[in-house]
Design brief:
The chain folds into two domains: about 120 residues, Rossmann fold (3-Layer(aba) Sandwich), CATH 3.40.50; about 130 residues, Rossmann fold. Helices cover about 45% and strands about 20% of the residues. Helix 8 links the parallel strand 8 and strand 9. The strands form three sheets. A six-stranded parallel β-sheet has the order 2-1-3-4-5-11, sandwiched between helices. It is an alpha/beta fold and about 300 residues long. It has eleven helices and twelve strands. The chain is elongated and about 65 Å long.
């Protein structure tokens, strides 16, 4: 009994000495972005920085400009700057796991956004449900083409999470439309408008009677639409994109292309900061958090131009 009383007294004294235990606080945040030339990533960056500013959190942003090895070096540098957490958008599939492993070995929590790292996922992954959303886009363009015709697909960067998932989603739509024949597919390197233009030009030369285009990003869709305008084919060509980029939404309102899936980029940025703060504080978060994208056409685009989600 005497020993028990002594232990209790010691515990009480230790509590008075140390005071209450406080959860760790997020003060400095690393943001590693794949390519800030892309409007989609810029929207996320702006949202992260705005949310962090509200919370009094310092953000150190680095831009890999689409290069994986550059991004690995950038994140190594971020880790030397004593960041508390890392928000990470991989620049490609090949070396995507390296930064996650580096951060985790340093005890830094990782929030992956838009793209996850195969074999080495972050502590949580925030993204659009690209499978369902791509299916919706392809359902729409195939319906506009009356469920028949020749189709081409301009893919994003090979092996990245959105490229893989958008391919899966469109494939589901194609299964239900056996009279649509995919006559050409090509990968892009950085999801850019210039690539979309060049790829579509080549596809039109080889397949002048194509009537359906699914471009896995709005920049690719805008490039494809430009190539179609230059070629001036006799048939209507339905073009679908993906992302809800601000410039693309304006173009969609003018009928430059037909449909996109508008992602919740502002929410992604806010949620990335929120999850980083929770992880630093030792809270558990879900390993995957998928969001809906909204099918967007000329009929409903005005609302997204006025207030991007």
């Amino acid at each position: 009994m005497k020993i028990a009383r002594t232990m209790l007294a010691s515990a009480a004294l230790l509590g008075l000495t140390l005071g209450p235990v406080h959860a760790a606080e997020l003060k400095k945040l690393g943001l590693a972005v794949a390519n800030l030339q892309a409007n989609f990533f810029n929207q996320i960056k702006q949202s992260v920085e705005a949310e962090a500013k509200k919370r009094g959190i310092e953000v150190v942003t680095v831009d890999a400009k689409g290069d994986g090895p550059t991004q690995v070096n950038q994140i190594q540098d971020l880790l030397t700057q004593k960041i508390d957490a890392l928000i990470y958008i991989p620049a490609g599939a090949a070396a995507a796991s390296v930064p996650v492993k580096l951060a985790k070995s340093a005890g830094i929590p990782v929030v992956n956004v838009d793209r996850n790292a195969e074999g080495a996922p972050g502590d949580t992954f925030l993204a659009t449900n690209s499978v369902a959303s791509a299916k919706n886009v392809c359902d729409y363009i195939l319906k506009q083409a009356a469920g028949k015709g020749k189709m081409v697909i301009i893919h994003g960067q090979k092996g990245t999470t959105p490229e893989v998932d958008r391919s899966k989603g469109c494939a589901e739509s194609l299964k239900a439309n056996p009279d649509v024949k995919v006559v050409a597919e090509q990968y892009s390197n950085i999801w850019s408008q210039d690539e979309g233009f060049q790829i579509m030009q080549n596809m039109l030369q080889a397949n002048p009677d194509v009537s359906i285009v699914f471009a896995q990003a709005d920049a690719l869709a805008l490039g494809a639409a430009q190539a179609i305008k230059v070629a001036n084919p006799s048939q209507k060509i339905v073009v679908g994109g993906f992302d809800g980029d601000t410039a693309a939404l304006e173009a969609l309102s003018k009928g430059v292309f037909d449909v996109t899936a508008t992602q919740q980029t502002q929410k992604m940025g806010r949620d990335a900061v929120e999850n980083a703060a929770k992880l630093v504080a030792g809270e558990k978060v879900p390993p995957e958090q998928l969001m809906d994208a909204t099918l967007t056409t000329k009929a409903n685009v005005a609302g997204f131009i006025a207030n991007h989600p």
